[in-house]
Amino acid sequence: MLEAPVQPDAQSHEEDGVAAATPARFRGLVLDALLTDDPFLRACLVRTSITVVAYAGCVILIWLSVAMGLTDGRQTEICTPLFAASPIVFYALLRSRWTLRFSDPALTLAQMLFALLNLAVAYALNPHTRSATLLIVALVMAFGMFSLRPTQARYLAWLTQAVIGIEMIVLERTWPAIFPPDQETINFLALMVVMAAVSTLSAQVARLRASMREQKKSLQVALSRLEELASHDVLTGLLNRRCMTQRLHLEQARLQHDPRPSCVCLIDLDHFKRINDSHGHACGDETLRCFARQALQCLRAGDVLARWGGEEFVLLLPCTGAADACRTLARLRQLLTLPGSWDGRPELTVTFSAGVAQWGAEQTVEHILERADRQAYRAKFEGRDRWCWGQPLAEAS
User: Fold this and answer.
1) What is the architecture, at CATH level 2, of domain 241-388?
2) Measured between alpha carbons, how far is 155 from 148 in angstroms, rounded to an integer?
3) Domain extents for the chain?
4) pTM above 0.70?
5) Which of 133, 91, 95 is nearest to 116 (CA)?
6) pLDDT single digits (tens) 154-197
């Protein structure tokens, strides 16, 4: 008899998922503990951790020379704690966030100076690994290639050559049998070639970084401009119809969990076509700009005004009842009657008709706009220069 296939248990699947996620979560917690959850500081700590590998390689190389009988173990005992202490100290400083007060939180220059000092000590104590030590000097210089400024890299290269050059002179004069003058001369010339090459490469990398920063700034400015053009009306500087529609949908989402109503006002400038016909489109454009500028002065920080199209504007008043919305429109009408509202150009003066619709949680964006549009049409039908909402007439007194 065939046995029925065993159906997978949903609970066992869930337990397997939890078990699989546990190691990943544990690794994440360990990394956060060692390297923090700050992306910038974590990158600095990762670079510092790479130096630990380099220091460990140096220690292994030194003790290998001891095992081969090339170096005195007592001298090596001086280098080992020195090489071990430097990365630990810098890791602790970075991990404690104490270095964030500096312009270079990674302390790149300080780390390089300490590393070069350690290598200078190792060069004097271990003559059999002199060539390897000079190679590591080049590695230290490359460590700061992407962080140091060109002048810093240049000065550091000169300082390194001067310190190691003086050290070579002292060593060859004090212990010529261990540090032959000819060999030290060759080593110093090799160091000069390496330092010159590294300095040149550092300058080129720095120029590339500067160029990339300028390009990034230009792209950010262009992106900001594109975002502004995509969301704002070019003529008035107000939000455009597309962006206002998005804002209205956000307000609809708020109304689902916030009982306070909002109001939407559809504002239409009266007889705007006459201005274009009598004074030209330039005057019409200036009228729109003046109206937008004056309207913004009547609004609160959370209110939103957008150019809906042509001479139509939509005003969103969050957490506002119809009575308060009508008072806002009254302030706007009074402001538009002042002589300075139209830049001293009476030919720009217009009135407006508006429809006010109070917005509740049960109404969609399309519904509230349709209601406001009907009230605006009613205001124009009843004589313009007024606003209407759900009552027979809501003209301000």
Assistant:
1) 2-Layer Sandwich (3.30)
2) 11
3) 34-223, 241-388
4) no
5) 133
6) 888 888 888 889 988 998 898 888 888 888 888 888 888 888 88
